[in-house]
Design goal:
The longest helix is centred in the last third of the chain and has 17 residues. The chain is an alpha/beta fold and about 220 residues long. The strands form 2 sheets. Strands 2-6-1-7-8 form a 5-stranded parallel sheet. Strands 3-4-5 form a 3-stranded antiparallel sheet. It contains 9 helices and 8 strands. The protein has a single domain, classed as Rossmann fold, CATH 3.40.50. Helix 2 packs across helix 5 and helix 7 packs across helix 8. The structure holds 2'-deoxycytidine-5'-monophosphate. 2'-deoxycytidine-5'-monophosphate binds next to helix 2, helix 4 and helix 8.
Length: about 220
């Protein structure tokens, strides 16, 4: 894949805790291209909805608010900060309350329509690695490379637990497994762009693989 050529897209999809963000970030660094965490965009919209007391409001009301929701990414020492209406919400969007509500918010038709549009706009004339649930199936169906990462629910819960401990949030492994399975069910069964593997995606089960093994595998599939 020639770096000087713009408009390359690498789609990395999979369920929560499959290692998508870690792998996508490192891959983008290696390829010196843009990385976008599409899940962070759904999380930022969810945070806005929670903070503005819109959770139980109609889809029409939520749709009217969408244009007031500005989401940007800013590179910093720690990696990539997520900015919601000029506020750094990188930590807040990972909280348990947001995780609990995000599947419901991301199943809304107009939320998806708006975020898919924004994701395509960000990617215009860019060499980009984007991770999410529907990147290979809906956002970039013509992506140069599609990877679908999976892992056992137990290992995914352990990974999420570590992330949450860094945010000083505590939850038992069993409760996390249940939360992850509930989110998988909701994400896979929603009507619009459910979590699903694109037909032409390469499936990698990361349960017993190190990060560097996964990256090596992906490297071997990169178009020359
Ligand atoms: O990757 P994550 O766990 O941070 O994603 C949070 C939620 O956002 C996930 O439960 C489903 C939703 N999501 C989505 O519907 N489509 C995407 N492309 C990315 C995330």
């Amino acid at each position: 894949m020639k770096l000087e050529n713009k408009n390359h897209q690498i789609a990395i999809d999979g369920p929560a805790g499959s290692g998508k963000s870690t792998i996508a970030k490192l891959l983008a660094r290696k390829l010196k291209c843009l990385y976008i965490d599409s899940g962070a965009m759904y999380r930022a919209v969810t945070l806005y909805i929670i903070e503005n007391d819109l959770l139980n409001k109609s889809e029409n009301t939520i749709t009217r608010h969408l244009k007031k929701i500005k989401i940007t990414f800013r590179e910093n020492k720690k990696g990539q900060a997520v900015i919601l209406n000029n506020k750094d919400v990188s930590k807040k969007i990972r909280s348990l309350v947001v995780s609990k509500e995000v599947s419901k918010v991301s199943s809304k038709k107009n939320v998806r329509k708006e975020l898919v549009k924004r994701q395509r706009e960000i990617a215009k004339n860019q060499f980009i690695v984007m991770d999410g649930r529907d990147i290979g199936t809906t956002v970039f169906p013509e992506a140069d490379l599609k990877i679908y990462l999976t892992a056992s629910p137990y290992i995914r819960a352990i990974r999420r637990k570590k992330d949450l401990e860094n945010l000083s949030e505590r939850i038992s492994t069993n409760a996390l497994i249940k939360q992850i399975q509930r989110r998988d069910d909701l994400d896979s069964s929603r009507m619009i762009s459910p979590l699903s593997k694109a037909q032409d995606a390469i499936v990698i089960d990361t349960t017993n693989l190190t990060i560097s093994n996964v990256l090596k595998l992906i490297n071997s599939f990169l178009p020359a």
